[in-house]
Known about the structure:
Layout: H1 8-15, H2 23-49, H3 52-74
Helix pairs in contact: 2-3
Amino acid sequence: MGKRHPNLPAWQWKSHPQNDQHATHHALNLIAVALVIIGFLLLVSGVFSLSPINVVIGAIGVFAALGIQRRGHSLKA
């Protein structure tokens, strides 16, 4: 592998454009990531346990997370 940057979070924050530092964008992104993980786990659980309600709730969660992320990205511009 390569050398790791000594202060990676500060370097990443500084390298982002100014419009990508919107606090609401970051909060929505955190919510969306958590929701897509939970939704995906429910979806997979529902497929393997043959539970259609888990599949439906998981799919709704994944699509809701995509919508939340799209809204957050629209705030950047």
